[in-house]
Amino acid sequence: MSGSGEDDTIRSEPLTAEAFAPFGDVLEAEGAPDRIINRGLCGRWHDRAQLDFGPDGRAGLNLFKAEPRRLPYRLDMVERHPRGSQAFVPMSRHPFLVIVAPDTPAGPGRPRAFVTAAGQAINFHRGTWHGVLTPLHAPGLFAVVDRIGDGANLEEHWFDRPWDVVAG
């Protein structure tokens, strides 16, 4: 599936846990913490991501620095990682663009675009079609938790026609 003439625009929407649930986890320290630790000086929001690295992988912590992009954004490719989940934790309080697409028998379906709020991070479930890391502001620095291990863990899909992602 790809952009199709009159309907090749994707309007971004605010990132919410409910809307993002089919694709992954929204990570944020909102609401009451699960526990208070460190003599009452620290709230802990416990076990918030379904990290999945398969039976032959392990978690790795990487740092990514990506060039900022702007809306409208041209989406021509999505990728997925069949062997492991992938979490993106911004190292600044700037929002970033998150693009996902459902998996269909013909490949990725119509993409959806989300804009994070300051302080939100995301975790893509294993096998979720998603766009590349797309910060909207410098410095574009992220901690990324993903699978380290043998075997191919990247599939790319290039759309026949690109999609235009615009502000919602």
Keywords:
168 residues, mainly beta, Jelly Rolls, five-stranded mixed beta sheet, five-stranded antiparallel beta sheet, 1 helix, globular
List the helices and strands and how they pair.
Layout: E1 9-11, E2 13-14, H1 17-20, E3 24-27, E4 35-37, E5 42-44, E6 58-65, E7 73-80, E8 86-90, E9 96-101, E10 103-104, E11 107-108, E12 112-115, E13 121-124, E14 129-130, E15 134-135, E16 141-148, E17 155-166
Parallel strand pairs: 1-17, 2-12
Antiparallel strand pairs: 3-13, 4-5, 6-16, 7-17, 8-13, 8-16, 9-12, 9-14, 9-15, 10-11
Structural notes for this entry:
The chain is mainly beta and 168 residues long. Helix content is 2%, strand content 46%. The chain contains 1 helix and 17 strands. Strand 4 (35-37) and strand 5 form a beta hairpin. The longest helix is centred in the first third of the chain and has 4 residues, at 17-20. The mean pLDDT is 95.
Q: What separation lies between the terminal Cα atoms? A: 22 Å
**CATH architecture term:** Sandwich
What is the C-alpha radius of gyration, as a whole number of Å?
16 Å
* CATH class category: Mainly Beta
User: Helices and strands: which structural class?
Assistant: mainly beta
**β-strand number:** 17
**How much is the average pLDDT?**
95
Q: Please mark out the parts with pLDDT under 50 across 5 or more consecutive residues, or reply none.
A: none
CATH superfamily: Ureidoglycolate hydrolase
CATH topology: Jelly Rolls
Biggest beta sheet attributes: 5 strands, mixed
Into which percent range does the helicity of residues fall?
under 10%
Output the number of helix runs. 1
The tally of domains stands at 1
Beta-strand content: over 45%
What is the succession of H and E elements?
EEHEEEEEEEEEEEEEEE
Please state the overall shape, judged from the principal axes of the Cα atoms. Answer: globular
